[in-house]
Amino acid sequence: MTLPAALGPASRWKRLTRSVRRFGREENAATAVEFGLIALPFIGLLMAIIETALLFLAGQNLESAVDITARLIRTGQAQDQGLTGDTFKAQVCSEAIVLPSCTDSLHIDVRTYTSFTSMTITDPVDANGNVDYSSFVYNAGHGGDIVMVRAYYEWPTFSRMLGLNFSNLTNGNHLLAAVAAFKNEPFAW
């Protein structure tokens, strides 16, 4: 049995190639298709830029807040006012204006040392990405003491849904840190 020429493989191939060529020349909705191909990488890049900028802004704000409030300890004002760990943390939060829910996510460690070379900075994050703040203390010291103020803030990240990962903790947050080390002025307290 022979097939008519119109239904043979060569004829089907001609119709297929004609349809493909016609589809290639078609320009209706080409912009929508191009945007669809470009939109997801563009939005991902835009989200990465925004999150990087926010992390940088929050880190700089935390650094500034710690520097400003550490001056209270350095000059003896914190000791004169009887600041505790919680009230000192509230002072840092009042200076850190871009940190949301600051009092819940901010952790402060203030210690005195005998010399700058004896300072040890222990990382509160373990190898698994879990944070332990249980050893943090507040000891502002006296006049002439060497003090180190450490502040840690857990910044929530939002770009995980796009495959970007700015988090360095297992709970998905990014841990921001600020440190100030100084020798207290020789105030009489």
Please characterize this protein's 3D structure:
It is a single chain. The protein is α+β, with helices and mostly antiparallel strands and 189 residues long. The chain has one domain (31-183). The protein has helices at 9-25, 30-74, 77-81, 85-95, 102-105; strands at 106-113, 146-156, 173-183. Strands 1-2-3 form a three-stranded antiparallel β-sheet. It is rod-shaped, with a radius of gyration of 30 Å.
In short:
The chain has 189 residues and is of the alpha+beta class.
Amount of helix:
40-55%
| Order of helix and strand elements from N to C terminus | HHHHHEEE
Average predicted local confidence, pLDDT: 87
Strand content: 15-25%
Measured between the Cα atoms of the first and last residue, the distance is 112 Å
By helix and strand content, what is the structural category? alpha+beta
Largest sheet report: 3 strands, antiparallel
Number of helices: 5
**Global outline:** rod-shaped
User: Please, how many domains?
Assistant: 1
What is the fold's blueprint, element by element?
Elements: H1 9-25, H2 30-74, H3 77-81, H4 85-95, H5 102-105, E1 106-113, E2 146-156, E3 173-183
Antiparallel strand pairs: 1-2, 2-3
Helix pairs in contact: 2-4
Main attributes of the structure:
three-stranded antiparallel β-sheet; alpha+beta; 189 residues
